[in-house]
Write a structure and sequence with these properties.
With 454 residues, the protein is of the alpha/beta class. It contains 14 helices and 16 strands. The longest helix is centred in the middle third of the chain and has 19 residues, at 198-216. The structure holds 4'-deoxy-4'-aminopyridoxal-5'-phosphate.
């Protein structure tokens, strides 16, 4: 082992680039793009080692619902650290895991009464896929071993979750490693025909889904969707009627419905869970990200009694569900989640968000006639702007022109973290954001867009 001291003269960013390999990054980019070295965060703001501050307009990859270091979550975590840090969740339990499961069952759509923990979003998706497959196997129907996913959907980047993801950037390279889902065309309103409403498009896409189920239901375990907003696929939004119709189709064809609420859960779309807007209960609901208020990794898969019962048998029947992560149900993370739910319970979060979302929508009207903006869309505290080469034909800018990156770089100059998804500039701020901060992020985005399309 080398005893050479860390060269303290180098900046944190320089030391980082010597040893850390970053996610979702071509590391070569950092020859020109600065690495932000953040030493402190508070509310909607990140403070860097060079004294600069940045408004976190995308909630640290959509995790940070109440702002950084929310006093209540910080206090809960300190208290929890003095009691119990982490134990394995096999054969033993602890108060935060039980209390959190009780709360989630109370808050979730009716019928979701069992909680299985994991420790990140992708793992929750793996759990839901495996559990659905295993349910059918336990029921004596092992041929139901395929999944239907939506075009443009994203469910994570582990092998199973990536298999049901349809975003080429993440999937194409690894395709030989993946299983092949049955892809149904997305109800994404942006893809509707000219003059077709989001609702009409949703209805048309349900006809496609019915056709797929008629052909494939005998071999399908579950349909997996991101309710209301396909986030990583470009903040593509669709009408809640699609979820209503999809639930009915899944019932008719006896197929499970998996709602991946990892990005849209916890108030993001205007209701605590997006499924509420369609008044449906999925068979599996995956939660993560905002679950701990953006402090610690944790995920949960909620399911119903029928699924639980299919696994409940004498040991010798060999029906037990097998999926175990060392940090399943981590006590600190569960405690952070309990504090997060307490904030939702005690403060008028959704009501405040309605006001903030209305302000954000109002400010974006400024771009309504922009020649390089094809669409401005919003669902609750998610708003997105679709940049195109030509508004009339909606012809996209080629991806390799990296127009979104120019918006990102302009944001850095002005102290706002915007991280466009390709040519989609979006806002997903923490709920503590003020109207003045919304004004700032919109102003900076508009300046960035002008630079990007020039
Ligand atoms: N599903 C959805 C809808 C997501 O947005 C994400 C993360 N962007 C995931 C799954 C994967 O979560 P994680 O990054 O924690 O693995």
């Amino acid at each position: 082992m080398s005893n050479s001291p860390v060269p303290q003269k180098l900046s944190l960013a320089a030391r980082d680039l010597d040893v850390v390999w970053h996610p979702c990054t071509q590391m070569h980019d950092h020859e020109t793009i600065p690495m932000l070295a953040i030493e402190r965060a508070e509310g909607a703001w990140l403070h860097a080692t060079d004294g600069r501050s940045y408004l976190d307009a995308i909630s640290s990859w959509w995790t940070n619902v109440f702002g950084h270091r929310h006093p209540r979550i910080v206090a809960g975590l300190k208290d929890q650290l003095d009691r119990l840090d982490h134990i394995m969740l096999a054969g033993m339990t602890h108060e935060p895991a039980v209390a959190l499961a009780e709360q989630l069952v109370r808050l979730a759509p009716a019928g979701l009464s069992r909680v299985f923990y994991a420790d990140n979003g992708s793992s929750a998706v793996e759990v839901a896929l495996k559990m659905s497959f295993h349910y059918w196997r336990n029921q004596g129907r092992p041929s139901r071993n395929r999944f239907i996913a939506l075009s443009g959907g994203y469910h994570g980047e582990t092998i199973g979750a990536l298999s049901v993801t349809d975003v080429a950037l993440y999937r194409a390279t690894y395709a030989p490693l993946l299983f092949t889902p049955i892809l149904a065309p997305s109800p994404d309103a942006y893809l509707g025909e000219i003059g077709e409403s989001a609702q009409e498009h949703a209805a048309r896409r349900l006809i496609d889904m019915r056709a797929l189920l008629e052909r494939h239901a005998h071999e399908v375990a579950a349909v997996i969707v991101e309710p209301l907003v396909q986030c990583a696929g470009g903040m593509r939004m669709y009408h809640a009627d699609y979820l209503v119709g999809l639930r009915a189709l899944c019932d008719e064809f006896e197929v499970h419905l998996i709602a991946d609420e990892i990005a849209v859960g916890f108030g993001r779309t205007g209701s605590l869970f997006a499924c509420e807007q369609a008044a449906i209960s999925p068979d599996f609901m995956c939660l993560s990200k905002g679950l701990t208020g953006g402090t610690l990794p944790l995920s949960a898969v909620l399911t119903n009694e029928a699924v639980h019962a299919a696994f409940y048998a004498e040991y010798s029947a060999g029906k037990a569900f097998l999926h175990s992560h060392s940090y399943t149900g981590n006590a600190l993370a569960c405690r952070a989640a309990l504090e997060t739910l307490a904030i939702f319970n005690d403060e008028p979060v959704l009501e405040n968000n309605r006001r903030l979302a209305a302000h954000l929508g109002q400010r974006l009207l400024e771009l309504a006639d922009h020649p390089h903006v094809a669409d401005i869309r919003q669902t609750g505290m998610i708003a997105a702007i679709e940049l195109v080469r030509e508004r009339k034909t909606r012809s996209p800018f080629p991806a390799n022109e990296r127009r979104g990156l120019r918006v990102y770089l302009h944001g850095l100059e002005r102290g706002v973290i915007l991280r466009p998804l390709g040519n989609v500039v979006y806002f997903m701020p923490p709920y503590c954001v003020t109207t003045a901060e919304i004004d700032l992020m919109v102003e900076v985005a508009i300046e960035g867009i002008e630079r990007a399309v020039a």
